[in-house]
Amino acid sequence: MTEAEPPAIDVRSLSKRYGNHEHGVLALDRVTLSIPKGCVFGLLGPNGAGKTTLIKVLTGISDITSGDASVAGFDVRRESMKVRARIGWVAAEVILDDDFSAWENLWLQARLQDLTGWEERADHLLEYFSLKDRKDDKVSHFSTGMRKKLEIALALLHQPTVIFMDEPTIGLDVGTRRMLWDIVTGVRKEFGVTVLLTTHYIEEADALCDRLAIIDQGRIIAEGTPSELKARVHADLVQIETAHDLDTQRISALPGVQEVRAQGNDWMIRVASSEDFLPRLLATVPAEDVRRISVEKPSLETVFLDLTGRRIGQEEPMRDIRKFYMQMRRARS
Ligand SMILES: Nc1ncnc2c1ncn2[C@@H]1O[C@H](COP(=O)(O)OP(=O)(O)O)[C@@H](O)[C@H]1O
Ligand SMILES: [Mg+2]
After folding, report:
1. What is the Å distance from ligand 2's center to 192 Cα?
2. Helical residues (DSSP H) of 61-118, grouped into ranges
3. What is the rounded CA–CA span in Å between residue 222 and residue 271?
4. Domains of the chain as residue ranges with CATH
5. Residue to probe by mutation, ligand 1, list 14, 18, 57, most atoms within 8 Å of CB
6. Nearest ligand to the C-alpha of residue 314?
7. What are the tens digits of pLDDT across the range 285-328?
8. 138 CA → ligand 2 middle, Å
């Protein structure tokens, strides 16, 4: 990779609105991204953030409302056929034909892509993904991990230079997910492809991606390497749920407190050091008032929390706690 090389994916102030005029949904809002060649780039964001839309626009499935985008050096709008010839796509949905063998699925893909002389490449891919001895087995007999491997093999068959993976590990068990991480990094090395993947799993973005962009409500809110992003939050986040309102001014005045945000009885307090802060907090808040305290050290989750005041994952422990207490209260009364 040299400095002069153009990026694998270049996006300039790209917006996408579904539906027409002001009534539509603004799924992408002036997105600008430059993704270097040979990189595993992650797009991390909650459901509805616009991740799939960006992939659809870059692969030419969906049209652009405004702005520019190029993939593999070609303009997504003006040179869409050239773009299509150079990209592979691993969708979140199943694309394999269950009644076909692995080899027949590859054959079908070659037909769809109008490829000639694909057999050698297919052989190499089966070999690479350790599927060679199963090539004549029906895909319906494959494990989830084997199916994923075959899906990636299909996406690589026409020798693309850029691969898109939309939530590739959604619904996979932990073991298969980790296997897939190894595959993604391996594929990048072996086939020299650039990978753009989307995820709403923090751990995945952290473990797998060289660089990532955090996307929320159609906007890129941060971009960098996982460690650069984590270094932005020079603070621990203390979350506390109390039975009564806290005295914001008193909390804010405690040493080391950078910010206090409140939502009802849920408090998020940014502090320089949770180790120094917790004893001071507990000296201020009556113990019987405390329902829950948690501390988070800098992570991609706290980066998102810090930027948006919300969490990426659907799992929202604070809300669950509230439900739990409501049930308790009902049970008591
Ligand atoms: N075909 C569509 N028509 C109208 N709105 C859509 C369509 N597809 C997605 N959206 C909306 O665009 C926003 C972004 O969706 P999407 O790109 O699927 O997000 P993500 O993949 O991050 O979950 C959401 O508000 C979603 O409801
Ligand atoms: Mg999606």
Report:
1. 26
2. 80-85, 102-113
3. 21
4. 9-230 (3.40.50.300), 233-332 (3.30.70)
5. 18
6. 1
7. 888 889 999 998 888 888 888 888 888 875 444 444 445 445 55
8. 29
